[in-house]
Fold this protein.
Amino acid sequence: MTNYIDIVSQAQILEWLQVFATEIEQNKAYLTELDAAIGDADHGINMDRGFKKVSIQLPTLTDKDISSILKAVSMTLISSIGGASGPLYGTWFLRASTAVVGKQQLTEQDILAILQAGLEGVRQRGKAQLGDKTMVDVLSPAVAAFGQAIGESKRTLQAMQQAVAAAQKGLQETTPMHAKKGRASYLGERSIGHQDPGGTSAYLMLKSFLAVLENSKSIISQIPNEKNCLD
Ligand code: ADP
Ligand code: MG
């Protein structure tokens, strides 16, 4: 048997943020269209405003550790997105930063810690439960799937593939839900039949991370477990 420790570098975190910013830009109209159906038609505009600022900020963060990068992104999002999603994404990134203080690279356990801390922050801040038709319905199954996969000694890449698959399923399941939180809840039963905009951007965030892992040639550092290396 071989044990693997997959390392995600600081450069890959910067790359992820840039890929996510580009995904948001490319999906700006789509996210806004989703929010037009059950909200106030600004989710794409809000997210793109925030992540354009992040994109400009990224070159100033190249010498920072991962926690400092995540914290700086959080501050930018809180000050520029507004709406419900500004504080929620701001909290996600702030909590994520506190989960990996001082780190220049991340193991699979660190990534799990980020995902768990970010979700917990969103839950505390927004008070949404599973089934309320929010980003929690996407983030929560993704965290569970990632945790389960690494618990089964899956590689980071495969664990993230499973997390993104769970996020996609969670996102699809938001469509028949009756919104209980945020502006969509004002619609009551008329919120049924529409995919959640914030869940959609949360899915894009995870998918962007997976894209960076899939593109990478350097993520894998294979550490044979000495005891079992002949297995
Ligand atoms: P606003 O609703 O203020 O216009 P956005 O349109 O940018 O903000 O974001 C809406 C998204 O925010 C929703 O689709 C939902 O996923 C998320 N959201 C709203 N309220 C909450 C909450 N209390 N907890 C978690 N997510 C929420
Ligand atoms: Mg809105």
In short: The first helix runs from residue 10 to 26. The pocket of adenosine-5'-diphosphate (ligand 1) is lined by residues 35, 39-40, 42-43, 46, 83-85, 88, 122, 126-128, 134-136, 181-183, 196-199 (CB under 6 Å).
